[in-house]
């Protein structure tokens, strides 16, 4: 049975070591009805990423593009003119999809014509056992590692995460683009997170509806350094910056007071051994600092610790 084609898109930068593992998994994907294509945008890599991509052109329906100007969303926008078919599937360069991933997304899009935005399950792929202090009682793994688990059904923009996201191509054909002032950017290590969220929030506001397909599953590779407290606190700050920008027009009652209280608590907890409570306090402190820094006229300061 044939059907409309779909295109998978992701941006990459300096991932020559990791990409073979990712692309090997893509080569094992079951082809959905109508087939699929893959567009990968190299975002100014300084390693052998381009060579790795070229080595897979005989194993994958792969088009490799170049966008040397830093910025993940700039790279994704460069890919939009190369979309084929009616469904654009976005993911990351550190994702391992299940073999039936595209088949499941295709079935969801065909079964729910009322929806234009689609999401699926995202599970962490841990490199080693987690320490006791790194747990979901302390921090949201959805923020840290893009973990997302929920039942299938109608959903809002907040239920769809970047590693497993699909949008009907007609939306981009009508002129919609990713906002280039948010998202990963090599020129700013403390960039504002939330690039996919910003797009999806905008589309939902324009009346587009979402559907979550739990059976469409990918695993998100977690690097060892992403299990260290310093990385977690930096991510908390970037997440806060993104929230501050998204809600810049609103007044946060008591933000200054909360920053003061958590700042004092964070300095005290830093003297204690690692624990879920210590991580929760220090994470909240850096998130609040990011929210303040992301507001208009605010200057982002580097995270402590």
Fold and architecture overview:
The chain is α/β, with parallel strands linked by helices. It folds into two domains: 6-226, Spore Coat Polysaccharide Biosynthesis Protein SpsA, Chain A (Alpha-Beta Complex), CATH 3.90.550.10; 228-294. Helix content is 35%, strand content 18%. It is built from ten helices and nine strands. Strands 1, 2, 3, 4, 5, 6, 7, 8 and 9 form a nine-stranded mixed sheet that branches. The protein is globular. The model is unreliable at 297-305 (pLDDT under 50). It comes from Belnapia mucosa. Residues 7-172 form the Glycosyltransferase 2-like domain. InterPro entries: Glyco_trans_2-like, Glycosyltransf_2, Nucleotide-diphossugar_trans.
Q: What count of structural domains?
A: 2
Order of helices and strands: EHEHEHEEHEHEEHHEHHH
* pLDDT < 50 stretches: 297-305
Strand segment count: 9
Cα gyration radius (Å):
20 Å
Q: Please give the count of helices.
A: 10
Molecular shape: globular
In what range is the share of β-strand residues?
15-25%
The named CATH superfamily of the largest domain = Spore Coat Polysaccharide Biosynthesis Protein SpsA, Chain A
Indicate the structural class: alpha/beta
CATH topology of the largest domain: Spore Coat Polysaccharide Biosynthesis Protein SpsA, Chain A
Biggest pleated-sheet summary = 9 strands, mixed
Give the CA-CA distance, first to last residue: 57 Å
The pLDDT mean sits at 90
By CATH, the architecture of the largest domain is named Alpha-Beta Complex
Which range best describes the helical content: under 10%, 10-25%, 25-40%, 40-55%, 55-70% or over 70%? 25-40%
CATH level 1 name of the largest domain: Alpha Beta
């Amino acid at each position: 049975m044939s059907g409309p084609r779909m295109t998978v898109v992701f941006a990459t930068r300096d991932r020559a070591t990791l990409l073979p593992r990712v692309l090997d998994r893509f080569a094992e994907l079951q082809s959905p009805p109508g087939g699929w294509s893959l567009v990968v945008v190299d975002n100014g890599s300084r390693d052998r990423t381009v060579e790795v991509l070229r080595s897979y052109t005989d194993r994958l329906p792969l088009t490799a593009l170049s966008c040397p100007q830093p910025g993940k969303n700039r790279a994704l926008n460069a890919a939009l003119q190369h979309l084929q078919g009616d469904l654009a599937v976005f993911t990351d360069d550190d994702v391992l999809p299940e073999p039936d991933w595209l088949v499941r997304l295709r079935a969801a899009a065909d079964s729910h014509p009322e929806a234009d935005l689609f999401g699926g399950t995202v599970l962490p792929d841990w490199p080693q056992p987690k320490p006791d202090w790194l747990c979901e009682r302390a921090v949201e793994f959805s923020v840290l590692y893009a973990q997302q688990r929920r039942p299938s059904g109608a959903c809002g923009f907040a239920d769809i995460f970047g590693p497993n996201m699909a949008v009907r191509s007609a939306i981009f054909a009508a002129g919609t683009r990713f906002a280039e002032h948010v998202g990963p950017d090599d020129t700013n290590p403390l960039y504002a997170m939330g690039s996919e969220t910003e797009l999806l929030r905008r589309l939902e506001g324009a009346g587009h509806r979402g559907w979550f397909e739990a059976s469409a599953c990918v695993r998100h590779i977690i690097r060892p350094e992403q299990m260290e407290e310093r990385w977690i606190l930096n991510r908390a700050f970037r997440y806060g910056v993104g929230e501050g920008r998204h809600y810049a027009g609103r007044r946060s009652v008591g933000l200054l007071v909360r920053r003061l209280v958590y700042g004092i608590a964070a300095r005290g907890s830093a003297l204690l051994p690692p624990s879920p409570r210590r991580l929760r306090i220090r994470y909240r402190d850096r998130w609040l600092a990011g929210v303040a820094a992301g507001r208009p006229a605010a200057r982002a300061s580097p995270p402590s610790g």
